Amino acid sequence: MPRSKRDQKVSLTKTDRKGLSNKQQIIEDIQECRQKYDNVFLFSVQNMRNAKLKDVRTAWKNSRFFFGKNRVMQLGLKFVSDDGDEDPKLEQDLEKLRDQMIGQCGLLFTSESKETVLDWFDSYSADEFARSGFRATKTIHLKEGPLEEFSHAIEPHLRSLGMPTKLERGIVTLYKEFTVCEKGKVLTPEQARILKLLGKPMAKFKVIINCCYTKENGFEEIKKRDIVVTKKTKKVLNKKPKKAKSEEAMSEDEDEDDEEDMSDEEDEDEEMDMDDEDDDDDEDDDKA
């Protein structure tokens, strides 16, 4: 049977863009928090996990976390006074804080002292299973013999991951020695999956405080960031904007959408032109 044109796969993972109104709301929330709280901390996350970040938010429920696009958060930090009189020292300190917002980072607004924040985040960490691309921190070697921690039903899956396993009297058994990973080498997706099945976490989720602005001492750099150089971060490092215009920053995504719409319209026009040419050819054939 030929395939029906109606038989098309529809992706259910598409989500609507949050749009300009959501960005404006984030900017207003940041400006409100800047007036409400005494201190602002810029942080980065090692081995990001959403569940662990939710635990941190719960522990600091009297504070406010922002983890979004840098250019939107930078606009929220821009100093605007209702009286029109801007404090040059405050504007200079906030400018230093905005310059540090490169790559993946977030903001913490709190009234707790700097010492309290640093002590808590220095002591907090959580073990997590490593993902592919992570460098192994130790060598995991499995000896030949039974693996009683696994059910017999998972044995085909272990074999598909590259483990030399077989079933002996309903027990998953390694018929030869197997090295899961070696220290210092990058993990593959299969190795990361095996480590998770073995219950051996190698990564640590940790929030690092990089710099802060406090009402008492102003801007202070606490720990220098190791920024991973990508296409986006390279552009930011090489070229700094002269003026932070809210309209340009927030409409950048809309311009991209307009370009996509224009390209779609051009494609539709080309298709219409092709259809017209086909109709003309058909008419010529009829006349002939």
Automatic annotation (TrEMBL):
**Location of the Large ribosomal subunit protein uL10-like insertion domain:** 130-199
Q: What InterPro entries does the annotation carry? A: Mrt4, Ribosomal_uL10, Ribosomal_uL10-like_insert, Ribosomal_uL10-like_insert_sf, Ribosomal_uL10-like_sf, Ribosome_Assembly_uL10
Where is it located? Cytoplasm; Nucleus, Nucleolus
Query: Which stretches does UniProt call biased (Acidic residues)?
Result: 249-288
Q: What is its main location?
A: cytoplasm
- Give start-end positions of Basic residues composition bias: 233-243
> Which UniProt keywords are given for this protein, alphabetically ordered?
Cytoplasm, Nucleus, Ribosome biogenesis
Q: Tell whether Nucleus is among the UniProt keywords.
A: yes
Gene3D superfamilies the UniProt entry points to: 3.30.70.1730, 3.90.105.20
Q: SUPFAM superfamilies, per this entry?
A: Ribosomal protein L10-like (SSF160369)
The domain of life is Eukaryota
Please describe what this protein does.
Component of the ribosome assembly machinery. Nuclear paralog of the ribosomal protein P0, it binds pre-60S subunits at an early stage of assembly in the nucleolus, and is replaced by P0 in cytoplasmic pre-60S subunits and mature 80S ribosomes.
- Protein family according to the UniProt entry: Belongs to the universal ribosomal protein uL10 family.
Q: How does it assemble?
A: Associates with the pre-60S ribosomal particle.
Q: What is this protein called?
A: Ribosome assembly factor mrt4
> Which source organism does the UniProt entry give?
Aedes albopictus (Asian tiger mosquito)
